[in-house]
Design brief:
The protein is mostly helical. It contains eleven helices and two strands; from the N terminus they run αααββαααααααα. The chain has one domain. A two-stranded antiparallel ribbon has the order 1-2. Helix 4 packs parallel to helix 7 and helix 4 runs antiparallel to helix 8.
């Protein structure tokens, strides 16, 4: 069994050559150790934000709004409508926090990656390890939020169990692309563009109301945004309103992961091995 596992682990190393040493777990382990000494109030802030939105809008404003038509004939309470969207947002927040600001600091101030690639680690080890760390944070946020949804009776179908791997996929997509984008950033002022993009995406990606309220050209624009696909995927799973379009949402995030990993690896190689 050990020999088989060793041969299987050696396959990606042979394919990726000098950029991968097969030791991304060292980067992940270092990140987990460092996180233990972090300011946990800062860590919790990313989790609590969507919870506050759910309590204030879903339960508060929802009592005034009533039910929402999902477009497939299903009528949902407003809280049940926005809760899965905020679940996707929770996964996004956790992944983005680690893959942007934390990566930026490690890259430009602590010079951590420069030291890592000076060892036997390759750029793909660093990229994969950091993305897994961001993925872990996003998954933790999502699991915590889903527990709150369950306590409030907002998981309406047994397929809500599948929302857990779905939000992990959402977190992986944002973590991969987030780190790739961050690798091009040079100053803290440029990092403000991340929030400049995330805020309108959060507000307009069918998070709080159906995308059909927009004119058709705006609907196309919203449907091109990554969060929209996460919202629709998770909402379908938690409410039991399933459709073949959900496969497109999954493919969208798989493409995000692939593109993000490729660009991040290339950037780290160009920055530290050229």
């Amino acid at each position: 069994m050990i020999a088989v596992t060793a041969r299987a682990a050696a396959v990606p190393a042979r394919i990726l050559g000098s950029v991968y040493a097969g030791n991304a777990r060292a980067v992940l382990g270092r990140g987990i150790t460092a996180t233990r000494s972090s300011n946990w109030l800062v860590v919790l802030s990313g989790f609590l934000e969507p919870v506050f939105y759910l309590l204030s809008l879903g339960l508060g404003l929802g009592s005034v709004i009533g039910t929402i038509d999902t477009g497939g004939g299903a009528q949902l309470s407003y809280a049940a409508y926005i809760a899965p969207a905020l679940l996707a947002v929770s996964a996004m927040n956790g992944a983005i926090m680690d893959s942007t600001w934390n990566v930026f600091f490690k890259m430009h101030f602590s010079k951590l990656y420069e030291g890592m690639v000076a060892t036997s680690l390759g750029p793909f080890d660093v990229a994969l390890g950091e993305i897994l760390l961001a993925l872990l944070r996003g998954a933790m946020y999502a699991v915590g939020f889903m527990v709150i949804m369950q306590a409030l009776g907002l998981n309406l179908a047994w397929t809500a169990l599948l929302a857990l791997p779905a939000v992990v996929l959402v977190a992986a997509g944002f973590a991969s692309v987030g780190m790739a984008i961050t690798s091009f950033m040079k100053t803290f002022q440029q990092m403000d563009w991340v929030q400049f993009f995330l805020l309108p995406m959060f507000l307009f990606s069918a998070t709080f109301y159906p995308v059909t309220v927009y004119p058709v050209p705006i609907q196309w624009l919203v449907q091109a945004l990554p969060l929209y696909h996460g919202v629709e995927l998770v909402r379908g799973l938690t409410t039991g309103v399933l459709s073949p379009a959900m496969l497109l949402h999954v493919l969208y995030y798989l493409a995000m992961v692939a593109v993000g990993m490729v660009f991040t690896t290339r950037r780290l190689k160009a920055l530290f091995l050229s």
